UniProtKB/TrEMBL annotation:
<dbReference type="GO" id="GO:0016020">
    <property type="term" value="C:membrane"/>
</dbReference>
<dbReference type="InterPro" id="IPR006311">
    <property type="entry name" value="TAT_signal"/>
</dbReference>
<dbReference type="InterPro" id="IPR014349">
    <property type="entry name" value="Rieske_Fe-S_prot"/>
</dbReference>
<protein>
    <recommendedName>
        <fullName>Cytochrome bc1 complex Rieske iron-sulfur subunit</fullName>
    </recommendedName>
</protein>
<keyword id="KW-0001">2Fe-2S</keyword>
<dbReference type="Pfam" id="PF00355">
    <property type="entry name" value="Rieske"/>
</dbReference>
<keyword id="KW-1015">Disulfide bond</keyword>
<dbReference type="InterPro" id="IPR036922">
    <property type="entry name" value="Rieske_2Fe-2S_sf"/>
</dbReference>
<dbReference type="InterPro" id="IPR017941">
    <property type="entry name" value="Rieske_2Fe-2S"/>
</dbReference>
<feature type="domain" description="Rieske">
    <location>
        <begin position="46"/>
        <end position="138"/>
    </location>
</feature>
<keyword id="KW-0411">Iron-sulfur</keyword>
<keyword id="KW-0479">Metal-binding</keyword>
<dbReference type="GO" id="GO:0051537">
    <property type="term" value="F:2 iron, 2 sulfur cluster binding"/>
</dbReference>
<dbReference type="InterPro" id="IPR005805">
    <property type="entry name" value="Rieske_Fe-S_prot_C"/>
</dbReference>
<dbReference type="GO" id="GO:0046872">
    <property type="term" value="F:metal ion binding"/>
</dbReference>
<keyword id="KW-0408">Iron</keyword>
<dbReference type="GO" id="GO:0016705">
    <property type="term" value="F:oxidoreductase activity, acting on paired donors, with incorporation or reduction of molecular oxygen"/>
</dbReference>
Length: 142
């Protein structure tokens, strides 16, 4: 008589069914805007908008380009990629000058790119930024 194929128990099937949706959610949440894939910083200079949009001592998030620009009290501009250094998620929340990643809760200082709250341990990538003809232009670091 041939051997019967192994049949998983009811308990094994229920455990597997419970784990699959949870694992799928983690992967989906780690992409840009919660979708699959990794976010990307600009690879070429991009015009972000009017220079006056970023007041002294504040920051502005440009979600469409994965860039945050801050202006110091002295008028100087700084720009950083808003691709989280923990899992590559697009950061989509700016509270004052604090960036908050939607995937795992990492927080960064928009003025310095420094990590304020883990799980990220590496600062944001600094980008080049300048004001040209009243417009803010940011791109990869030179």
């Amino acid at each position: 008589m041939p051997a019967r194929p192994a049949v998983p128990s009811r308990r094994t099937l229920l455990r597997s069914a419970a784990v699959v949706p949870v694992a799928g959610l983690g992967a989906a949440a780690c992409g840009p805007d919660g979708g699959g894939g990794a976010a990307a910083a600009p690879t070429a200079p991009v015009d972000l908008g009017a220079e006056k949009e970023v007041a002294e001592g504040s920051a502005k998030l440009y979600r469409d380009h994965n860039v945050v620009v801050s202006r110091g009290r002295d008028g100087s501009l700084k720009a950083y990629s808003t691709v989280c250094t923990h899992a590559g998620c697009a950061i989509n929340k700016l509270e004052g000058t604090r960036l908050v990643c939607p995937c795992h809760g990492s927080e960064f200082d928009a003025r310095t790119g420094e990590v304020l709250h883990a799980p990220a341990t590496v600062p944001l990538e600094e980008l080049s930024v300048e004001a040209k003809g009243g417009r803010i232009v940011a791109g990869p670091a030179a």
